[in-house]
């Protein structure tokens, strides 16, 4: 077979053209996918490490949140979200600005528009009077003034009694506890004894 420079040139030219066509045909990204990758909507609005947030009402501190790491995002499809991927702590204050309770978790999300906190992974809430509530998932709805969970919960009261249940809810002041499918030992004081 006689190969001339012209034939080699035509073969190389054909390979380059076929490769280009193959690359164009193999591209499956739609314009929306490309635009979503190039826009800033997936980038955080704010982020930081070792941060503290103070939430006030009429110059009185309502609660403070501390985080190891903080990421705030916002997009047209989803509402603003504040994420605390390495966990943190929330401290709530009563009207006299004394600590009312605190909640620690290894992961948290805050939905500012709904005033809802989602706390996950080894969540422990402690009231000022010594009550401790533990669960793997807890929600604090600041609008409804309610802390609740639909997962297994363990409660240790201030006098050492241990209660367990499949879910719970308690008011923001941590007084009115409601426990579902509860079990545990409860001690009552007999006020009729002399």
From TrEMBL:
The lineage's top-level taxon is Bacteria
Q: Which InterPro entries match?
A: LipoPS_assembly_LptC-rel, LptC
In terms of Pfam families, this protein maps to:
LptC
Extract one GO cellular component term from the record: plasma membrane
Which molecular-function annotations from GO does this UniProt entry contain?
lipopolysaccharide transmembrane transporter activity
> What is the name attached to this protein's record?
LPS export ABC transporter protein LptC
Source organism: Marinifilum flexuosum
């Amino acid at each position: 077979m006689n190969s001339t420079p012209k034939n080699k040139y035509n073969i190389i030219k054909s390979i380059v053209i076929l490769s280009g066509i193959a690359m164009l045909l193999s591209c499956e990204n739609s314009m929306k996918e490309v635009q979503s990758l190039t826009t800033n909507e997936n980038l955080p609005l704010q982020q930081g490490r070792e941060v503290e947030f103070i939430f006030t009402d009429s110059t009185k501190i309502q609660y403070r949140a501390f985080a190891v790491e903080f990421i705030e995002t916002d997009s047209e499809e989803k509402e603003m979200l504040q994420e605390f991927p390495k966990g943190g702590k929330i401290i709530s204050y009563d009207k006299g600005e004394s600590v009312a309770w605190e909640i620690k978790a290894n992961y948290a999300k805050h939905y500012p528009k709904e005033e809802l906190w989602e706390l996950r992974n080894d969540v422990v809430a402690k009231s000022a009077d010594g009550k401790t509530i533990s669960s793997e998932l807890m929600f604090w709805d600041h609008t409804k003034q309610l802390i609740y969970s639909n997962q297994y919960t363990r409660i240790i009261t201030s006098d050492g009694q241990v209660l367990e249940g499949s879910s719970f809810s308690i008011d923001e002041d941590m007084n009115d506890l409601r426990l579902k499918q509860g079990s545990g030992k409860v001690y009552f004081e007999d006020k009729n004894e002399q």
